[in-house]
Write a structure and sequence with these properties.
This protein is mostly helical. The chain has a domain of 118 residues: Serine Threonine Protein Phosphatase 5, Tetratricopeptide repeat, CATH 1.25.40.10. It contains 14 helices and two strands. A two-stranded antiparallel ribbon has the order 1-2. α6 runs antiparallel to α7 and α11 packs antiparallel against α12. The two termini are 41 Å apart.
Length: 283
């Protein structure tokens, strides 16, 4: 039902958004084609048929292609072509379509592309560039439940630039404290922010600080396996023999892993407990 609501909103907005005339104040703006009623109906028909086809099918792509022949400047249609390809790890096929979505509507899709390049295609340098551009042009914001600074922090973690990762994760934490001033610290800042801040400190050898952040994560996500594991590792690094018990506990709660929506498609940075991990495979 949700996808048809989105479809109706998209179709109803086509003519309204496309009636904007070229402005003399901005030479970069291009006058968009005003759709006729017949063209609007044809686009609606093609999009409905694309939704009726399996998302990962060739038919789904072909119907979207037909809609794009009528309305090639639709960022939403380009994004709809890109998304299933990324979810099937066909990153190079999806990339030009996502770039088209950003080209036609950067305010809506630039941060989304930064997220995709961070979590899906693992192009961390490009992700950083896109988020920095989004911050500059549109200000700090959120995409897929997290701040831009959060994803930049993950990008730097994956590039082994741990000090830079911590810098942006701290910015993310402060941003959330400002945005949610009435929530307790462990809830104002997302549990994954606390987790990855702990990871950054762990990698930097700041084991006491790592434990503090990991414990904040565990206050919200009790028995979060990865947080338990790195807390144990940090304790062991500090010479605390009880660290081994925390590591053992992590494996006992291995099902309590990162629970982001997209974890069904991708393994997240520093996600230890997943099906590709030999320790998690059926014996």
């Amino acid at each position: 039902m949700k996808k048809y609501v989105i479809l109706l909103l998209f179709i109803s907005s086509c003519n309204l958004s496309d009636r904007k005339e070229e402005s003399g104040k901005d030479d970069k703006k291009v006058e968009k084609k005003v759709l006729s009623g017949i063209d609007s109906m044809r686009i609606r028909e093609y999009v409905e048929k694309s939704f009726q086809s399996p998302m990962h099918s060739l038919e789904h792509q072909q119907y979207l292609d037909s809609a794009l022949t009528i309305m090639p400047e639709s960022a939403w249609l380009w994004q709809q072509k890109a998304m299933p390809l990324y979810k099937t790890r066909k990153y190079q096929l999806g990339e030009p379509f996502l770039e088209k979505a950003v080209e036609y509507d950067p305010e809506k899709y630039l941060d989304y592309s930064g997220f995709i390049n961070c979590i899906f295609s693992k192009d961390y340098i490009k992700s950083i560039s896109e988020f920095m551009r989004a911050k500059k042009e549109f200000g700090d914001g959120y995409v897929m439940d997290h701040t831009y600074n959060f994803y930049i922090g993950l990008d730097y973690l994956q590039l082994n630039k741990f000090s830079k990762a911590k810098e942006f994760l701290l910015l993310s934490k402060e941003q959330q404290f400002k945005d949610f001033p009435n929530d307790p610290p462990q809830e104002a800042c997302h549990y994954l922010d606390w987790y990855y801040l702990g990871i950054a400190d762990f990698e930097l050898g700041n084991y006491k600080d790592a434990i503090t952040s990991l414990e904040m994560s565990l206050k919200v996500y009790e028995n979060f396996a990865e947080a338990l594991y790195f807390k144990g590792r940090s304790m062991t690094k500090l010479g605390n023999e009880e660290g081994a018990e925390w590591e053992k506990k992590a494996f006992e709660y291995g099902d309590n892993t990162i629970n982001e929506d997209n974890v069904i498609y991708e393994i997240y940075p520093y996600q230890l407990f997943h099906k590709l991990n030999e320790s998690e495979r059926p014996k």
